[in-house]
Amino acid sequence: QGMIEESGGGTVQPGGSLTLSCTGSYLSGGGIVWFRQAPGKEREGVACIRGSDDGTVYVDSVKGRFTISRDNDKNTVYLQMNNLKPEDTAVYYCTRQDYYCAGYETPSGPFHWGQGTQVTVSS
User: Fold this and answer.
1) What per-residue string of b and e applies to 34-45 under the rule 16 or more CB within 10 Å gives b?
2) 93 with 113: CB under 8 angstroms?
3) Rounded CA gap, 58 and 66, in Å?
4) Fewest CB within a 10 Å sphere: which of 23, 30, 62, 96?
5) Are 101 and 52 in contact (CB under 8 A)?
6) CA-based angle 54:81:98, to the nearest 5?
7) Mean pLDDT over residues 71-92, rounded?
8) 3-state DSSP call for residue 39?
């Protein structure tokens, strides 16, 4: 299936920006979701890019602030995060999900995860 590697996390102040990257052959040809998991909370999908047409969908809490994109030649998916808020603090993961991003907000198997990348938003 190939490894998935997330990178780009860090600590920023509220209002700051980060760009996350996710690389791996497993991501090829699918709908890709960026998930996040905060301490004590369930893993939630926040952005998805469709395998069919590269259309994108976002949950309301990140809409207008986050942008998901992909480079198919590099098997890499990005998450540009702007105007970060403390509630965005979480470990961020990406993986392949439904081709059309159906039900992207909830993880569905088969599960294939990387180690994630920590994003901390704090003043």
Assistant:
1) bbbeeeeeebbb
2) yes
3) 8
4) 30
5) no
6) 35
7) 96
8) coil
The pLDDT, as a whole number, for residue 2 is: 67
Distance CA 72, CA 27 (A): 9
40: CB partners within 8 A, 6+ apart: none
> Cβ neighbours of residue 73 under 8 Å, at least 6 residues apart?
none
Q: What is the tens place of the pLDDT at every residue in 8-67? A: 999 999 999 999 999 998 888 789 999 999 999 999 999 999 999 999 999 999 999 999
Phi-psi sector, 60: left (phi>0), alpha (psi -120 to 50), beta:
alpha
Instruction: Return the residue matching tokens 């909830």.
Output: 106
Q: Would you say how long the chain is, in residues?
A: 123
CA distances (Å), origin 94, targets 6, 21, 71, 80:
7, 9, 14, 13
Alpha-carbon Rg for the chain in angstroms: 13
Place of tokens 């991003």: 101
